[in-house]
Specification:
Order of helices and strands: HHHHHEEHEE
Strand order of the largest sheet: 1-2-4-3
Low-confidence stretches: none
Mean pLDDT: 90
Helix content: 40-55%
Shape: globular
Number of strands: 4
Radius of gyration: 16 Å
Number of helices: 6
């Protein structure tokens, strides 16, 4: 997992919960929380930090993972040298992630393990897709999807359905909400 996610997570913790909680979290997780943007780190470190933060704040780990994904969307997007072309909505962007961005990111981070998106249904107003990753970061992906919708200023209902116990297979249903 790329260091940019960890660095942004630390900013999120310090901004939303303060330095004291950050220090207590790193102590409880037994992690120095020092990361380099371009390096790769075990996703288990993020889970350990999230679980420690959850115990300190009494906020569910899943909610903290989703918050992290949502707030890391823009910095992650800006960190990638990608071509957006004519992409101007969430659904097209997500398709672009699987067909182009993951391949380009793999070039930048050759040791990274990219998730797979399997598209079940695609229309201009709805996308049903399966997220498959051995790292089980479905709730981060949920937050990233929310951050993406915010970026494109769209109202989208996003649901998450775990397809197995481990969370390595998650189904997302995105439906645009048409405003009157």
């Amino acid at each position: 997992m790329t260091g940019i996610i960890f660095i942004e997570f630390i900013k999120i913790v310090k901004t939303n919960f303060g330095t004291e909680i950050f220090e207590a979290m790193t102590k409880a997780a037994d992690d120095n929380a020092l990361f380099i943007k371009t390096e790769s780190y075990s996703h288990q470190r993020l889970f350990n930090l999230i679980n420690a933060l959850s115990k300190l704040t009494h906020i569910a780990s899943e909610d903290l993972l989703a918050l992290t994904g949502q707030q890391v969307f823009l910095p992650l997007l800006l960190s990638l040298p990608i071509k957006m072309g004519s992409i101007n909505n969430t659904i097209d962007f997500i398709i672009h992630v699987e067909t182009y961005i993951h391949h380009e990111a793999q070039k930048l981070y050759p040791n990274a393990t990219m998730p797979t998106f399997d598209f079940i249904f695609i229309s201009s107003n709805q996308l049903i897709m399966d997220y498959i990753s051995p790292r089980c970061l479905g709730y981060i992906c949920f937050g990233l999807l929310k951050g993406c919708a915010e970026y494109f200023q769209e109202k989208i209902n996003i649901t998450l359905q775990l397809m197995n116990e481990s969370g390595s297979h998650v189904r997302f249903n995105l439906t645009k909400i048409e405003l009157p």
